[in-house]
Amino acid sequence: MNISTHFLIAASRAYAGQVQNGGEPANQMSTVQADAAGTSARKSDAVQLSQSGREVQRLRDQMQVLPTACEDRVAALKQEIAGGTYQVDRAKLAQRLLGL
């Protein structure tokens, strides 16, 4: 693989530009892309999800708004721990650790 110095110089310019912008990328095509392509034209990327991809995203969004099944139990445990009343069942803990 041969990496040209032209590309390395362009990459360092692009990085320096981002550092000067406080880490924000420029709104136009990066210097690396423009120099590597030999043009200053803007290019845009596009993503199209398949039907199954859109369905997965829709289900993920729905799951985000659902409460977890154990919220009440977690709240009760937090209250017991904070109050100093939480007791560990040692026999039950040993059984679960041993996979019995």
Percentage of residues in DSSP E strands: under 5%
How many helix segments?
5
Shape: elongated
In whole angstroms, the N-to-C terminal distance is: 56 Å
Instruction: Report mean pLDDT, rounded to a whole number.
Output: 76
Helix content: 55-70%
**Low-pLDDT windows of residues:** none
- CA gyration radius, whole angstroms: 27 Å
Structural class: mainly alpha
Give structural notes.
With 100 residues, the chain is an all-alpha fold. The protein has a domain at 5-37. The protein has helices at 5-20, 31-37, 51-65, 71-83, 90-98. Helix 1 packs antiparallel against helix 2. It is elongated and about 70 Å long.
List the helices and strands and how they pair.
Blueprint: H1 5-20, H2 31-37, H3 51-65, H4 71-83, H5 90-98
Q: What's the short story on this structure?
A:
The chain is mainly α and 100 residues long.
Key phrases:
100 residues, elongated, 5 helices, mainly alpha
